[in-house]
Amino acid sequence: MNKNGKKISRRYGVFIISVLLLLVLYGLYPKQAKTVSNSVQQSSHTQDQHLSHDTPQKAENKFEDDFRSISQLDTATNCQLQFNASQRLIINEQTRNCFEYFISQYGERNINEIRHHFQLYLVQHFQAAQQQQILALWTRYLDYRQKLAQLQVDQPTQENVDYFQSVFNAMHDLKQHFFSSMEIQGLFGTEDIYQQYMLDRMKILEDAKLSEAAKAQRLQQRFDQLPQQWQENLKALSQLEDLRALTAQIQARHGSAQELRNMRVSRVGEAATRRLEQLDQQRSDWKQRVQHYLNERQSILDSNMSSSAKVQSIQKIQQQQFQSVQEQRRLQTFETVYDQGGTLPFSN
Length: 348
Fold this sequence. Notes:
Blueprint: H1 3-27, H2 40-51, H3 56-67, H4 93-103, H5 111-125, H6 128-149, H7 161-178, H8 181-205, H9 212-224, H10 228-252, H11 257-268, H12 270-302, H13 307-321, H14 325-339
């Protein structure tokens, strides 16, 4: 795979690596942590004694603060746990968000403290039978997060779609160890849809047997398989990333303008392709104007004119070639980069 291909693979694989790195922060348990000696009920009773002299509203606020870490004091406790008509816990993304809200306190509190405060929260807000259901799932979720932080996946010499697929598979196998299929769907369904979609995009982009136009068509077909809500949320971003990745591949092998056009038509259609071509022309015109101006400017600076004459001459050609205030401000950026010897920030 060429350098551009590697960059594309890393971009679409970074979400998995980020997940694993973030989980290291949350998942490590203290090796010699002491158990919490007081029971949930005793601690709750102690809290009630301390709050007895406050108004009900102040007491409730203070009690809620005990469930939050210092960095969370200005936030509402994100724990929207729900039960159905049969009083069974509804396991969905909100359930996971609740668990993660407490886990995110790690660093400010150790794992045993987090466990204890979560139990206190349940005592305050849920009936005994409901608490048992939540605690059973919460305990397994904490164990899962610990194991996920310890997950070992061999690092290949080349980060390609097979590697990221192996990471995804390892994560899925771990989920199956701790949760039922229904629980996995509820807790991780949204995440899994997105991750599989990104992996499928990588497979298409890395397929050397396909032309860029064929890849664009496959990418569009894969996008169309997403749920409608996902399509609405991801359409603009997916199109932009697909166009960038495929354009980079065409440019890397010095492909023709017709190949670029075919790819664009396959991915975004004829009308959008014409708009992109107009944008290309505008960018090309701007690039030529800026380079022409910088060359003229440099000739003036290298001349034997006086300093004041140089300034006047440069201002004159600048005003002649870039008449709007917006263009002149934009030009200043290019002048600064040029004078510092950097690469001019033209859009690709």
